[in-house]
Amino acid sequence: MNLKELQVKSINTTMIIKVISSTSSSNLLSYLVNQEHKVLDAKGVIPNASIEEVKKEFRDREVLNNRAKKIVYNIIVAFPIDEDLSESLENQLLQEVVDEFSEGNDLWYAVKHPNSSTHKHFHIALSAIHWKTTKALKMKKYAWRAILLSRKLEEKYRLKQVASAPKLNHNQRKEDLKFAILHALSSSKNLDSFVEHMTHSGYKTIVGRGVSFVEIESGVKFKGSDVGREYNLRNIEKALANEQSLDKPPTHIDNLLDIGSSILDTALDLFPDSSTEFIPNVEDGLPKKKKKKPKFRLR
Q1: pTM (2 decimals)?
Q2: Do the domain assignments include residue 293?
Q3: What DSSP state is assigned to residue 45?
Q4: Do 15 and 112 belong to one domain?
Q5: Which of 22, 74, 189, 291 has the fewest Cβ atoms nearer than 10 Å?
Q6: CA angle 259, 263, 264 (to 5 degrees)
Q7: Under 8 Å between Cβ of 180 and 106
Q8: 234-251 pLDDT tens trace
Q9: At which of 137, 156, 175 does a domain end?
């Protein structure tokens, strides 16, 4: 089994739905269309409208409530790469997810990224502001609701299922982070771009003497080397310098693409103003100086 086959086998085991809140609809929409994509459907905007027209509709909605901190949600729906999804079934799943989270809101824009080598997925950009009430969506317990909805849809539409719902324990978080790093590397050509992609995958990247990742949803922090020795800053920079991707494994870094059993194409907040800001990792600290032993002289 080659490396790519191992990736597909190891990370695509179940349907996953993730809900990501954002403070910038413009950044989110740009992220969705600034790669090969297909518009699946939309409400409140014409599906074949230009992205600038779509952004304007979202901005006009946001003006109605300038106190809301979370003004748009990125809902990601991902499937195993070998899941057989007809266009009709895909549209049904899209509508089920919208019905669960939209709370009757009438402005959303759904985009599919068809060329992922590791998992099928689509995104729904959902405005968080109601047109009539001008109030923001409540989105209570959305992370747990997303897990329950995944299991419900697997059963209802006879999709591939796992024995039990995934638990977000410490090891699972590491596997999710591994995939996010590899996903970002496959789409980035430099460190700034890598940091931006990690933000859209739900991680704030802190670059100093080393590299750390903070899971935005929970605040849990990992050093790259804690995830695996292949994920330290030096190896990430080497991979970016060589413009490596999932289709072209690194030649100078052993096992960089040895990824785990979970996928994550998502996050909680986008940081539009600081997504590419490098922040020193104060936890790493400076190397401690060794104390010199006193020298004793015979008199």
Answers
A1: 0.67
A2: no
A3: S
A4: yes
A5: 291
A6: 120
A7: no
A8: 999 998 887 544 334 333
A9: 156
Q: Is the pLDDT of residue 223 over 60?
A: yes
* pLDDT single digits (tens) 54-111: 999 999 999 999 888 889 998 989 888 788 889 999 999 999 999 999 998 999 999 9
Q: Within 10 Å of residue 80's Cβ, how many Cβ atoms?
A: 21
Same domain, 279 and 256: yes
**105 and 60 assigned to the same domain:** yes
What does the angle CA 255 – CA 202 – CA 188 come to, to the nearest 5 degrees?
50
Query: Could you give the number of structural domains in the chain?
Result: 2
Co-location of 139 and 253 in the same domain: no
Query: Do 101 and 235 fall within a single domain?
Result: no
In-domain check, residue 73: yes
Query: Are 15 and 143 members of one domain?
Result: yes
In terms of C-beta density within 10 A (0-12 exposed, 13-18 middle, 19 or more buried), how is residue 41 classed?
Answer: middle
DSSP string, 115-166: T-SSEEEEEEEEESB-TTT-PBP--TTHHHHHHHHHHHHHHHTT----SSPP
In a domain, 1, yes or no: no
Task: Decide if 43 is inside a domain.
Answer: yes
Which pair of structure tokens corresponds to residue 99?
């019905």
Strand order in the sheet with 16-22: 16-22, 72-80, 119-127, 108-113, 38-43
- Determine the structural domain holding residue 140 and report its residue range: 7-156
What letter does residue 229 receive in the DSSP assignment?
A: G
| Cα separation, 271 vs 264, whole angstroms | 18
Average predicted confidence (pLDDT) for the chain: 76
Model pLDDT for residues 35-45, shown as the tens digit of each residue: 889 999 999 99
Residues 6 or more apart in contact with residue 119 via CB below 8 angstroms: 11, 12, 78, 79, 80, 81, 263, 265
Residues 135 and 192 in one domain: no
Q: Which of 133, 156, 179 is the last residue of a domain?
A: 156
Q: Give CA–CA dist 140/260, Å, rounded.
A: 30
Sign of CA dihedral 8, 9, 10, 11: positive
